[in-house]
Amino acid sequence: MIVIRGGSVLTPDGIVTADVVVEDDRVVSVEASPISHPPSPPTTQIDATGCWVGPGLVDLHAHLREPGQEWKEDIASGSRAAAAGGFTAVVAMPNTLPAIDEGHRARFVAERGQKVGLCDVVPAGALTLGREGRQLARLDELMDAGVRLFTDDGDTLVDAGLLRRAMEYLAGRDCVIAQHAEDPGLAGDGHMHEGSVSSRLGMRGLPALAEETIVARDLALVELTGATYHVQHVSTAGTVELVRRAKKAGLSVTAEVTPHHLVFDHQEVESMDPNFKMYPPLRTPDDVAELRRALLDGTIDAVATDHAPHADHEQEVPFEEAPRGVIGLETAAAAVITATGIDQQRFFERMSIIPAQIARLDGHGLPVAPGSPANLVVIDPSAVWTPERFHSRSQNSPFSGRKLTGRVRATLLRGRLTHEEVA
Amino acid sequence: MRHLLTIEGMSRADLEDILDLADEFVEVLERPIPKVPTLRGATVATLFFEPSTRTRLSFERAAKALSADVLTFSPGTSSVTKGESLKDTALTLRAMGADLMVVRHSATGAAHRVAQWVDVPVINAGDGAHQHPTQAILDALTLRRHFGKLDGLHVGIVGDIRHSRVARSGLQAFSTLGARVTLIAPPTLLPRDLAGWPVDVANDFDDVLPQLDVVYLLRIQQERGGTTGFTSLPEYVRRFGLDDSRFARLRPEAVVMHPGPMNRGVEISPQVADSPRTLILDQVRNGVAARMAVLFRLLASPGAER
Hints:
B: alpha/beta, 11 helices, 9 strands
């Protein structure tokens, strides 16, 4: 039995200060504290005074690198990082080697996740074979293997005709198409946001329009096909506006933002530190402000980490030669709290409830109530800390050495403690 | 001064201090035995990850004129082709005893990165399209020696500004020293966002030509995509080449500069290149003195590392 004492608990009836009692894999009671429990059988007590208690976090976007690039991360190390970050479910991107484009490959990822047992690893499927953008992946097999989210993430599905076919195929089948939106012609060989900083640094820029033109085009296809569509890692104010209009028009569209796009802008690249190299790139301060607003007002539905591990030796190169992406699982909650000052209700909506709905996950993202699965997280929203080392196999974090507010104290997966950080 | 990575942020006093020192080294290089023992026992390593002849030779000449030893690294004959990281290469040269590293690389910030990894001074000898600070110093030295000062001079930098580290570092040095800088290029060869740059911009060479004291010509950076800025080379020559008729319309006291290597018949006509009003060989000569000044500052000045 585990008792989470005195936290501020997100329940179906709102937020209450309560003790949460967990037995086996379920929540058995949520009672206004203080309550007296018989101290038997052996009980683990978690002091949640001043903490948020809610459903375990759900990440729509992580690169766990297995199979194929295990020197960067594998499902075990990625799951440890996820648990440390408060996550109980992680959608694993399919840009592994080989790509997750056939049913057995998706099963491999899910089974590895179950074996590790620290969080539910939910495979996303590739949209096209080998993520090459030429012909559709084995979407039927992937669906049979439980895949509900399809994406060629890392690359954009550029061929509008092929995307239309994927949308027509998946429309009405309770699946979502997620797009990494980056027009290759406009993006060119860009390494950072095209603007004042790229001009000064003499670095090739990746304009905001590279993202916005793809999203605008895709939304027209959504309107045509009735598909369910998800914009990955929104980075510009222009994309936010496109999503806002599409939602108003009643399209089945959702959007995510990464923690790093909520915190940093393109001026960070002046440090030449590859830990600020990601695609889409860090944008302008005005874009950052709009992303924060859009997350709070719900135009952006979810925070997704785009956790993208790279080994130290791969980062020990000039910025332009460094690989794309940064890790994020272990700092996501803190980054969101630090950047936005979000309240508990919306925090859990954006980081657990809605992502679980978008990924169609059962047993995750549910308010805490008797009988609900004990996938839980305890977060101290006012703890100040400075991340230095990570459970992830890779350490490429832009948050290293930055003071953050908000710390994960404990994570439970089906009633088992997968992470505990003593205050 | 710990490293020389960028001109950005250097004050007028910083620049003038180096120019004054460089003037003294110009004098040293004119002596019958053009060599001083100042850096005897020091080892200067040149790490050139991008092809270069003149800049590397200039640094090596400068180091030897100060009696330093030179370690030469070039990727054609090295482990870089075997996949060694920039950091490992830098640490290896440091372990061999390099007291200073001169870094040239096709990527922005390469020298900045090396400076984060080694405990010796680093000189940026060109990083991508970002900065080439010793070129800016030698150009400022050349102008100061020719005109006496840069204050009030109107410098037109012509050509592929977008891909030019020479332009980015040069315009900062020239304007800090009091010159007025005009960038002359088609919009496709200008940086996307010039907000806050201490420059004027002209898309038409002929409009500003008669006002210039200095015409600073750039090479089209084919390796960085410079040829995408126009539809054909003849078009570029017609609009931005310093041909004989444009040369004839320059003010009589105006001079022509070029960082080399020149493409005769493209940005500069052969007659102009050979004209006594070009300072191109002065730039090369002064380059050695300017680099001696920088090496001296980083290795031998009070407070320097050694």
